[in-house]
Design brief:
By secondary structure, the protein is of the alpha/beta class. It has three helices and eight strands, in the order αββββαββββα. Strand 3 and strand 4 form a beta hairpin. The protein is elongated and about 100 Å long.
Length: 196
């Protein structure tokens, strides 16, 4: 009996090790994807552009991570590990503002210091929404929100802006497309208000 165990033990040990270390995939691997907001070109102006100093751009903590965010219920947000923003959301939103407002014929013209330019305003932005809201009927909506602080020499204003765009489907591509549309609409509204 002992010789039988000694004879088969190495083989049984090898089978156990090989069997325990083998992974049989049950599903295909999920590929990671990276996204950017895609906005159309900024509208142009025939008149003088509004001089603006872009102060701080911040993103609310729930949306500050790189993963696309899904709201599942009240105070319940989930970040998508496989579908992310290519840039940090704060940097990305600031870049969107700056690229839009450095064009020569843009409605808004960026200045370094609003205090040194007559009629200039300082604008600070807090992004309060940049996510999919899946709590309602499927497929849900994309929510983009901003709290915009505008200061000029005489006064200070606060604009609470938001857009809710219906999703075409529950896919990352559809979410980014709707978020891009919502962001563009908010930028247009900010520019119209700054002109007025």
């Amino acid at each position: 009996m002992r010789s039988l165990i000694r004879h088969w033990a190495p083989l049984l040990l090898l089978v156990a090790l090989v069997g325990g270390c083998t992974l049989v995939p049950t599903q295909p691997a999920v590929d990671r994807a990276w996204f950017l907001l895609e906005l159309p070109p900024a509208p142009t102006t025939a008149g003088a552009p509004v001089p603006v100093e872009l102060g701080s751009v911040r993103v609310a903590p729930a949306f500050a991570g790189k993963g696309l965010v899904y709201r599942l219920g009240p105070h319940r947000y989930e970040s998508d590990f496989y579908n992310e923003w290519f840039l940090d959301p704060r940097d990305h939103v600031e870049q969107v503002f700056r690229e839009r407002w450095i064009a020569e014929d843009a409605v808004v013209r960026l200045v370094a210091d609003a205090r040194t330019v007559p009629g200039a305003r300082e604008v600070d932005v807090l992004v309060t929404g940049l996510h999919a809201d899946l709590e309602g009927p499927a497929p849900g909506v994309a929510a983009v929100g901003m709290r915009v602080f505008v200061r000029d020499r005489d006064r200070m204003r606060l604009w609470e802006l938001d857009r809710r765009i219906a999703l075409e489907s529950r896919s990352p591509d559809a979410l980014v497309k709707a978020l891009s549309r919502g962001m563009n609409e908010l930028l247009l509204e900010i520019e119209q208000r700054l002109e007025g």
